[in-house]
Amino acid sequence: MVNRDRHDITFEILIKASSKRKKTELMRDVGLSFVQAKLYLGGLVEKKLLEIDEKRNFRTTKKGKELLEKCSKCPLFKWAKNKNSAQIS
């Protein structure tokens, strides 16, 4: 498995959560342990980059989508360009 830094993981969570996802789906899709998911998802919700709806689904907020868009344009973040399958909507 490839080593990932916080930016890679955050970017991947925000992309996957663009369409509503349950916590366990995000954990599986992004490859996080329960402890990591709790840490990352809690932090992203606190920063208002993710929101939780009444059915306990995580979804990327408008602010989160803006962050994804800005990061994908920045030449310093080559990880954003390497995510060919990433669709920012």
Provide an overview of this structure.
The protein has a two-stranded antiparallel ribbon. With 89 residues, the protein is mostly helical. 55% of the residues lie in helices and 7% in strands. The chain has one domain: Orthogonal Bundle (Arc Repressor Mutant, subunit A). It starts with 5 loop residues before the first helix and ends in a 7-residue tail after the last helix. The model is unreliable at 84-89 (pLDDT under 50).
Q: Whole-Å distance between the termini?
A: 28 Å
Q: Total number of helical segments?
A: 5
Uncertain regions: pLDDT < 50 for 5+ in a row? 84-89
Q: What would the principal axes of the Cα set say about the shape?
A: globular
Summarize, please.
The chain is mostly helical.
What's the topology here?
Layout: H1 6-16, H2 23-30, H3 34-46, E1 50-52, E2 58-60, H4 62-73, H5 78-82
Antiparallel strand pairs: 1-2
State the main characteristics.
89 residues, two-stranded antiparallel ribbon, 2 strands
